[in-house]
Amino acid sequence: MRALWPGRAGHGFVAAYVVLLIAFGIVPTCYAVYFAFTDGNARFSGLSNFSRAAADFRFVPAVEHVALYLVFWLVALVVLVVGLSLLLYELSARGVSKALRFLYYIPGALAGAAGVMVWLFVLDPSVSPVAFLLRAMGFATFGQVVAPGHLPVLFTLIAFWTGAGGWIVVMHGALNNIPREVIEAARIDGASAWQTARRIQIPMLRKWIVYMVILTFAGGTQLFVEPQLLAQASVGVAGRDYSLNQLSYDFAFQNNDVNTAAAISVELLLVGLVVAALFVARSGFFDAD
Amino acid sequence: MTVKFRAIGAPGPGRPRRRAGLLALGALLALGAAACGTSSGKANTPSTGGSFKTAAQTGGTLTVWVDSDRLAAAKLYQKAHPEVKMDIVTYDGDANGSNYLQTKVSLFNRTSSGWPDVVFSSQNNETSWAVQAGFAAPLNKGLIPQATLDGWATDANAPCTVDGTVYCLRNDLSQTVLWYNDKLMKQWGYQVPTTWEQYQALGEKVAAEHPGYLVGAAGDTFAPEIYLWAGKCGANQITGPKAVTVDATSAACTKMATLMDTLIKDKTLSTSSVFSSDFDKNEADKILMMPGPSWYGGALFQGTFKTPAGQLGVAPMPQWSGDSSPSVGNVGGGTWLVSAHSKNLKASTDFVTWVTTSDDYQGKLAPGFPAYTAAAKTWLAAQQSSGYYADDITAPLTAAANQVWAGWGYGQFSQEAVWAATVTPGVNAGKTIVSLLPAWQDSIVNHAKADGYQVATK
Fold first, then answer.
1. What is the pLDDT of residue B336?
2. Where does the record locate the signal sequence feature (chain B) (predicted)?
3. Which long-range contacts (CB under 8 A, 24 or more apart) does A47-51 make?
């Protein structure tokens, strides 16, 4: 006898997610798009909100800040996450891999804001546990450490520390999915660890790396918590309009201009989508193996 | 006792699950309708305040938002008025210009509900947006008698006044004075300077004779309010509800900036924040003098630096020699706002009047110099009798209360944030303040324009 509604348990599980996705993903996005193309009196306003945002004196610097941060962040992430994952995979035979994976994952368990607070202490030479390092680099005060030119590197450090552990665990799982026979065959053929990594493991990880880049690119363009907290804690040196999301927040709540704020959000969404599409198209992300 | 006390963000009283589910569904549908429908946007619809229409006065619970320092005030009022049903909520008081209040009011305006009846803010420029947002109720148009308002110190309610209408009540004054270490001054045979020229000369002397000691600090966001405001530098003179004159490169600005540069170079003017762990650890016990607001005495020297009793002296702020009109700066000073949407205006007004004028709170408990003159007298007497200060603090603080230079205004844009983002990094990188004045000017102009101000420059 056939079931009345085959796979209903599965649909049930998916339904809960779909409801949340609609409520907190699609509806707000729809709302933002609606705001971005209307004015304060709900009349269609074309691209005027976009041009107002672009003409604002804070816009270009914010784009530059976010772009620079993304370069540092993405390069650091790809190189170090892949490198550390390969190292962990090599170590897995020796039994320390589990402990290391757990260790890497701990910072990710700290909420974003709490992670930033930890770093605010680490970066202050007068209280930092690594004050000797900061002093060796010529920094005597917190103000010198958080100088505007250092911010992309500092935000990268914070983001890497809070976010990379999770990706290392994911990559480790992906590495474990590569058939043992392929690695064995390479070893038998005399490939070194480096050659195995370069010619077999990294190419086979390509889709996971693309997946990581797409998600972290979109996440990186949303830079907000780090500069916002730093602006509060660093006597304002970081500025409250450092990133595009902060600028959007400023438009909404400082200038009472929700429409321009929404225009910036929509731009960020578009950039994320375009970059994702490029990566997917170039990497054959959806091609069947 | 009917007091209810919770922190913002704390969960409210529980609701039956079914109702919560219905609410969630309702919210979802409402969001969906808003997203796809043609709801009327409410942004950019400033209220002028002149056409103040009270909400239906249905009474009920008086919701009061305070910061942790003002919690004592609200609790004391509740104790004295047990018949008033109160919901006391603590929030950050907009400390460091967090914009929490503005953000929340903006959201409440969209949902047309949720406004607190009375709110305290540690930022004295709240009126600049709160009036535009239609949040602040006009207080001198029937809510508070003029005779009561006349009790405030000269110009104390200037940050609260837009076009002659008073929209908030000043809690405390933050006039600047010169704090000094009486013990060290006597020990080293120095005179407390009365002019800026003497102040600079003494700073240079200290650099030579007692290196490591400080005559001031300029590492905080409010450094321009202590030095440049006192020196009559007209960096942001608010000339109308949405008009500002910016002249950050004038002779007065350059003169004071040069003094600061000289002392920063000599390392007698610290470039660290007086609230930083760095300052607390390395410099707090090396203060010979420090110009700063009235609240420095209790909050900073006694509270944070733990300066021993009997050492801290207060003198009038130095003046440029030859200047016949004394001027001082100002750093903060909180304000109380009554919501224009309050359904309990009488209780709200009673509360703000009590909390700003009462001797029991302002005179005896408040941490800062009360803006209400009668309470300030009681406060000064209490401070003086505590025996903490080395000399008479009444005369210099009272005189300074009426000398805050009126050429510096309270615009919507944060003067402190502008300085921090424009000047502080440059100073940290070894540039002079004088060389950064044009960039400071440009940044103020840009921020003022972004906030919709008509900007005039000189």
1. 97
2. 1-35
3. A49/A259, A49/A260, A49/A262, A49/A263, A50/A263, A50/A266, A50/A267
What's the pLDDT score for residue A111? 65
Q: Verify whether the Cβ–Cβ distance B417 to A57 is below 8 Å.
A: no
Is the predicted ipTM greater than 0.85, yes or no?
no
Contact B133 A126 (CB under 8 A): no
Q: Which strands form B62-66's sheet, in the order they lie side by side?
A: B4-7, B86-90, B62-66, B118-121, B335-338, B168-170
| Cβ pair B428:A143 closer than 8 A | yes
* Domain total of chain B: 2
Residues B180 and B241 in one domain: yes
User: Are B103 and A124 within 8 A, CB to CB?
Assistant: no
Instruction: Establish if B398 belongs to a structural domain.
Output: no
Do B325 and B346 lie in one domain? The reply is no
Least CB–CB distance from B221: residue in A57, A124, A236: A236
Spell out which chain A residues touch chain B, with contact meaning CB-CB distance below 8 angstroms: 19, 22-23, 27-28, 30-31, 34-35, 38-42, 56-58, 124-127, 141-144, 147-148, 231-232, 235-240, 252-259
Instruction: Look at residue B181 and tell me if it is in a domain.
Output: yes
Domain CATH number, residue B194? 3.40.190.10
Asked if B231 and B309 sit in the same domain, the reply is yes
Are both B290 and B366 inside the same structural domain? Answer: no
Interchain CB distance below 8 Å, A253 and B99: yes
Q: Which domain holds residue B322?
A: 176-329+412-457
B71 and B153 both lie in a single domain:
yes
Q: Is residue B213 part of a domain?
A: yes
In this structure, the answer to whether residues B72 and B184 fall within a common structural domain is no
pTM > 0.90: yes or no: no
User: How far is residue B12's CA from residue B6's CA, in Å, rounded to a whole number?
Assistant: 8
Mind telling me how many Å the CA of B47 is from chain A's nearest CA? 13
- State yes or no: pLDDT of B344 exceeds 90: yes
Q: Give the pLDDT confidence score for residue A289 in this predicted structure.
A: 56
Question: Is residue B1 classed exposed, middle or buried when 0-12, 13-18 and 19+ CB atoms within 10 A define those classes?
Answer: exposed
B106 contact residues in A (CB cutoff 8 A): 252-253, 256
Contact residues on chain B for A27, CB-CB shorter than 8 A: 28, 31-32, 35
- CA A120/CA A158 separation, integer angstroms: 10
